Amino acid sequence: MSKMQLNIYIPKEKGHILASLEKVAEATGRPKNEIVLEALELYLPKASRKSPGTFSLGRIKTTSRRDVYERRLNA
């Protein structure tokens, strides 16, 4: 089986993630790369689904019952 390599640089402010990864790897006896690959396999299918996003309906004018009846009577 051929292997590919991916280097990940973790900023200092995200160091807690690396610390958590190391703890899990030690606790489970699994290699860090195996844990990262599993996390990516779970995350990527969800992330690749397109989100419907948000949109604006614009300004909505509320209509009172009185306005509806007046329009009907004047029609």
Give a quick summary of the entry.
This protein is an all-alpha fold.
Structure explained in plain terms:
The chain has 3 helices and no strands. It has 75 residues and is mostly helical. The model has no long low-confidence stretch (mean pLDDT 88).
Cα radius of gyration in angstroms: 27 Å
User: Which sequence of SSEs, written as H and E, runs from N to C?
Assistant: HHH
What separation lies between the terminal Cα atoms? 78 Å
Structural class by helix and strand composition: mainly alpha
Query: How would you describe the shape?
Result: rod-shaped
Low-confidence stretches: none
Total strand count, please?
0
Strand content: under 5%
User: Kindly state the mean pLDDT as a whole number?
Assistant: 88
The number of helices is 3
Q: How would a crystallographer describe the biggest sheet? A: none
Provide the helix percentage: 40-55%
Task: Spell out the blueprint of helices and strands.
Layout: H1 15-28, H2 32-48, H3 65-74
Tag the structure with descriptive keywords.
single chain; 75 residues; rod-shaped; mainly alpha
